[in-house]
TrEMBL record:
Protein name, entry field: IS5/IS1182 family transposase
Biological-process GO terms, alphabetical: DNA transposition
Domain Insertion element IS402-like positions: 24-94
Organism (species): Gluconacetobacter entanii
Lineage: Bacteria, Pseudomonadati, Pseudomonadota, Alphaproteobacteria, Acetobacterales
Molecular function GO terms recorded: DNA binding; transposase activity
């Protein structure tokens, strides 16, 4: 837990950065080991991977469409290709799991959480295709997110379902996935 003193504010300040979503040197040092190395053979990688990560964080924090990515980042097609490749490979899940376990140990806790809080949220969707259903209780047509946090508030797991799944049924899927990730 960070106490927002003057020293802490300076330490976590994002002033002087191009965008507030850009990674600091300390954040990049934590993320960099997870970035897959360039493939062998072919052309050498010329894309700055830190800029790719910064572009992904910009999209996530701004909530904008891919095509609205500012020109100072690598091309949209490059950023999107890396994003989908890393998502499909489970890289973001691995990053989250390792970082959460490390933070828990820093706080003097066991690496694997022993307790958590699960919640769900139904959200409307406008896009066609993909998961969709009708949550009769909340009168929402769309998707349902099941989110689990530990007692420190760290994100443990997130699962997206069609909105028509009952919370008790979604919880079974979420808990099974957590058991696999945190033995």
């Amino acid at each position: 837990m960070v106490t927002w003193t003057g020293i802490a504010r300076r330490e976590h300040s994002r002033e002087g950065m191009r965008y507030p979503s850009d990674t600091t040197d300390e954040e990049w040092a934590l993320i960099m080991p997870f970035i897959p190395p360039a493939k062998r053979g072919g052309r050498p990688r010329t894309t700055d991977m830190r800029e790719v990560v910064n572009a992904m964080l910009y999209i996530a924090s701004a909530g904008c469409a891919w095509r609205l990515l500012p020109k100072c980042f690598p091309p949209v097609s490059t950023v999107r290709r890396y994003f989908y490749a890393w998502r499909d490979a489970g890289l973001f899940e691995v990053m989250n799991t390792v970082l959460v376990m490390s933070l828990r140990e820093i706080e003097g806790r066991e690496a694997s959480p022993s307790a958590g809080v699960i919640d769900s949220q139904s959200v409307k969707t406008t896009e066609s295709g993909g998961l969709s259903g009708y949550d009769a209780g909340k009168k929402v047509k769309g998707r349902k997110r099941h989110i689990v946090t530990d007692t420190c508030g760290f994100l443990i797991f997130l699962l997206v379902h069609a909105a028509d799944i009952q919370d008790r049924d979604g919880a079974v899927d979420v808990l099974a996935a957590i058991r696999r990730r945190f033995p």
